[in-house]
Amino acid sequence: MHIMTTALPFQTQQPIFGKVGGIAELVHMSEEDRLKYNISLDTYRTNLSVMKNERAEGRQEGLIEGRKAGVAEANRSFATKLKLDGFSTEMIQKYTGLSAKEIERL
Predict the structure, then answer these.
(1) Nearest to residue 22, comparing CAs of 5, 7, 6, 41?
(2) What is the pLDDT of residue 13?
(3) CA-based end-to-end distance of the chain
(4) Helices marked H in 7-30 — which ranges?
(5) Integer angstrom CA distances of residue 67 from 60, 70, 72, 106
(6) Model pLDDT for residues 1-19, shown as the tens digit of each residue
């Protein structure tokens, strides 16, 4: 304890004493309270893991949707250029995959 209070700067002493205090509280808990604490901690960690996983899945879905939108925009841009150069609707459909109605709207 003497080394902790003299060798460590004050800023690092506070978190250490907080952690030691938390450990002391756990040690003095009754068996029933410790069981409730562990269940609560497991529930918290499970919920945290689920939220992280959902965020990652949402991010992945967003990337896929973004790519689809980017490809669609590139196809419309390419179709517009082909249309301006006088290509037929059928030819533009062949190279872009756009429908005739989409090409007419360009």
Answers:
(1) 41
(2) 61
(3) 77
(4) 10-27
(5) 11, 5, 9, 21
(6) 455 455 555 556 667 766 7
Give dist(CA 58, CA 74) in Å, integer.
Answer: 24
| Residue positions counted in the chain | 106
Tokens of 74: 């590139």
How far is the C-alpha of 106 from the C-alpha of 15, rounded, in Å?
64
> Distance (Å, rounded) from C-alpha 44 to C-alpha 68?
36
Q: How many helices (H) and strands (E) does the chain have?
A: 5, 0
Residue pair 56/73 in contact (Cβ under 8 Å)? The answer is no
The owner of tokens 């949402």 is 58
CA distances from residue 62 to 52, 71, 97 in whole angstroms, order as listed: 15, 14, 23
